[in-house]
Specification:
By secondary structure, the protein is of the alpha+beta class. Helices cover about 25% and strands about 45% of the residues.
Length: about 270
């Protein structure tokens, strides 16, 4: 038997031993899944990853023994941890990739094998997203000269706890031209995986629609999101604001291109 499965079984056995005899009997008789709290779920996740990444079969086995309430409680706690990290997160420099794309990603440890993953990407409108391996790129510098045309900058933040995740994203669609930079539209997104609840958002708001002064202007927008996580007894409601900006750094009119920069922030507003 796989060592990780053995460890998981042993840990679950310890959890059950700590229950009183009547409670244990009732659990067995009613076939209640044993992992009912965030702490028990953390134990299960850590056991599964004792000797390497969690496999799909291990994830499915763990979820089969876990209540929705336990997953919701774990995700809620790690969202709190992510908020603290984002308050002091450093800038991320995008790296140029083939096809005119630029990308950066960084992962933050939230404890208990949970992570906060931040991804930034800039690409031309109409370019194929495809499937590619994107390297982590969080330091150094790279000139972001972009040819005239329509582009979009996407900021994505994901709290991933292996057994469930929450993702928020915002696409900032903009135009680079001889005039400078102009906002086109914002496209929000978000999803919950293995978490009971909903994510909704308002219409993105463009706060500065044009940038005309190289080195001293930008275009920016924001979107507000409502995340509801239901633990079966109560609904945890959180509201977030995701801001993105495209900076007008320099202009090469002869080459018909503009140097751009990127900025983003995610804050909890309620």
């Amino acid at each position: 038997m796989n060592k990780k499965i053995i460890i998981l079984i042993l840990n679950l056995s310890l959890i059950m031993i700590t229950m009183t005899a009547p409670a244990f009997a009732e659990t067995v008789m009613n076939d209640i899944r044993p992992i009912e709290t965030a702490e028990q779920l953390k134990t299960g996740i850590n056991a599964c990853m004792e000797d390497g990444p969690m496999t799909m079969s291990e994830k499915e086995a763990l979820l089969a023994q876990t209540t929705d309430e336990a997953v919701a409680a774990l995700i809620g706690g790690k969202l709190d941890a992510a908020e603290e990290i984002l308050k002091g997160s450093e800038d991320m420099t995008l790296k140029n990739l083939p096809g005119g794309r630029a990308y950066a990603a960084k992962e933050y440890d939230l404890g208990d094998n949970c992570i906060l993953r931040v991804e930034l990407e800039d690409r031309a409108e109409g370019s194929s997203k495809g499937i590619s391996i994107m390297p982590l790129a969080t330091s150094g510098s790279s000139e972001m000269w972009k040819d005239y045309g329509n582009r979009y900058f996407t900021a994505t933040a994901t709290v991933d706890c292996k057994v469930g995740s929450v993702t928020l994203s915002l696409e900032n669609h903009y135009k680079v031209s001889s005039s400078g930079i102009d906002e086109n539209k914002g496209v929000p997104g978000g999803n919950l995986k293995k978490v009971i609840g909903t994510i909704t958002w308002k219409n993105p708001q463009i706060t500065d629609g044009v940038a005309r002064t190289p080195g001293a202007s930008d275009v920016n927008m924001y979107c507000e999101y409502t995340v509801k996580i239901n633990d079966g007894k109560t609904t945890d409601v959180r509201e977030y604001k995701l801001d993105t900006a495209v900076k007008y750094l320099a202009h090469d009119k002869a080459g018909k291109r503009i140097e751009v920069g990127h900025a983003w922030s995610l804050t909890r507003i309620a």
